[in-house]
Amino acid sequence: DCFNMASLVLDQYLRCPVCMDFFADPHRLPCSHCFCKRCLEGVRQHCLSFNCPECRQLVVLDYRGVDGLEKDRRLAAMVDEFAHQQQQSRVCKEHKRTVEGFCETCAVLMCGRCFFSDQHSGHTMGDVDVVAKKKRDEISSELALVKGKVDSILSDSEVTVQSQLCALQEQITTEFEQIRELLRHKEEALRLEAIKLAEKACHGHDKIAKAQELKMKITDLEESITTDGVSFLQNMAELKERVRIEKKLVSSLDSEYTDTRICLPTLKHGDTELFLMSFRLAPASDPRLRIRKSSDGSEDLTFRLSTQHLESSNCKHSAKLSFHTNLVLEKQMSPSPAVHAASFLSSGYLVLLDLNSTLLLFNEDYTLLHELRLEDKAFDVTALSDHMLAVTIGAAKRVELIDVKDETLQSNGKIELDTECFHVSCIDDKIVTGNGSLVSFFNVKGARLKTIIMSGMIQSLYISKSHRKMYLNIRSEYVLCADMRGNREYKYKHDDLQEIGGVTADNRSLAYACGSKSNNVHQIGPDGRLVRIILSKENGLTKPISVGFDSTCSKMFLIEKDDTLKEAVKVYNVNY
Fold this sequence. Notes:
Layout: H1 2-13, E1 26-28, E2 34-36, H2 37-44, E3 49-51, E4 58-60, E5 70-71, H3 73-88, E6 101-103, E7 108-110, E8 125-127, H4 128-225, H5 229-234, H6 236-256, E9 267-269, E10 272-276, E11 288-292, E12 300-309, E13 317-322, E14 326-333, E15 339-344, E16 350-354, E17 358-362, E18 368-373, E19 380-385, E20 388-393, E21 398-405, E22 408-416, E23 423-427, E24 430-435, E25 438-442, E26 448-453, E27 458-464, E28 469-474, E29 478-482, E30 488-492, E31 500-505, E32 511-515, E33 520-524, E34 530-536, E35 544-549, E36 555-561, E37 567-575
Antiparallel strand pairs: 1-2, 1-5, 3-4, 6-7, 6-8, 9-10, 10-11, 11-12, 12-13, 14-37, 15-16, 16-17, 17-18, 19-20, 20-21, 21-22, 23-24, 24-25, 25-26, 27-28, 28-29, 29-30, 31-32, 32-33, 33-34, 35-36, 36-37
Helix pairs in contact: 4-6
Domain RING-type: 16-56
Organism: Magallana gigas (Pacific oyster)
Protein name: Tripartite motif-containing protein 45
């Protein structure tokens, strides 16, 4: 029994924790845990870094991959010896012959001679296969009973969960329908208040006109007072009457003035509150209405209140609320060969990177100024400053620096890195690259500053300099927003955003992601929720693969690809 117990324990320690089979070509990680070579290849998924399946410690491989790890030859020898011992265990220890039968009374394996020994006289014995089938059927019957009871428990639980889920969904639908109804009523009330404000604004303009007219009359009166004494005394009674009339008009005009500040009530339904802040509409102003989602002002939406004057006999006025982010197509280009990356310079220049690793420099009028062909295959481009670009040469493990001087592109050296680099962005004179699931920060000399492991394969990345956030396209499935330490702010995934391409953000903390399969561009709020779809197939969009802004976020470029693999670059003017 002790020997069997030891064999069981040894059997567990000689099995790979990943495949649960005996170790095959075991390799040892720096954390001292061992795994099969093929299992390590599956875990790392063609990446040069991964977490140990046992202790989750980060493992960074060199260019040789798993072959660069230490082989555990002693462990491999132990596995071979244990397999040999297991084979020997099928031999009868007393007669050194292969076992052929089984004694059910003693529960031991027997060879042919054991059948005729006095030790097993009168016992129930049989052939190994026959007894094994009999015992296997007995255990299978018991397992079937247990499995039936478990299935019954699961079925009852599933019915209970489904009924609770249906009840919860119905409750959610009812609650939110009530909220929507409440908001519809409040919206109508708000529109009526806006119309009143517009009328008051018009009244304010009328007041100004009347006040200017009164001012002219007062100026005339002041001139009449300065005449000679005889004329003044002769007209004094008339002047007093005019002053009395003008004073009465001023008092009347002043009493008619009413403040256009209106405090709107708090909307409340259950645990949901919308705090509608007071707002003021004054003549010749640019009024806005802020709707706050929380009492501390941490989340709010700003709307522009625009007044439209309708020409009619009774001069009525109306007002409307709208969220302004209008895009106007300014330029469309179709360079050949196709373009797969772009970047704006703060000087207003636009730089495109085509499939032949050629950089194209355009001025503000989109006139081609200069071309620069790079020696190796370039992957991505970003602006380091108003006169310098960084271009990633992925497989060569380096970044090319390009100067923009006198409307030309000039090579300004190379930064050698210790890893492959594909996607690129920058912040605070640091170059940020994306490779596999790693985001790496380098200084301008190529020294690695830090590396952050993300939750999946990075397809594109953007670093926002204004609010210091990372926006990453993970496996073309969702957008991940994280701080500069890699802590997740939100994860955005939407059924109407398929095969995500480029991601970017503006200076209002709004993110943008384009879906090449869904043919649209989503605008994402700071809370990780959809604000609206700013471009779609209805706007002539065809498989967008990249998006970005200039330094002022007044222009947005979009690279798209049609079914013939022909790519186009569109530049939009952005109006907020």
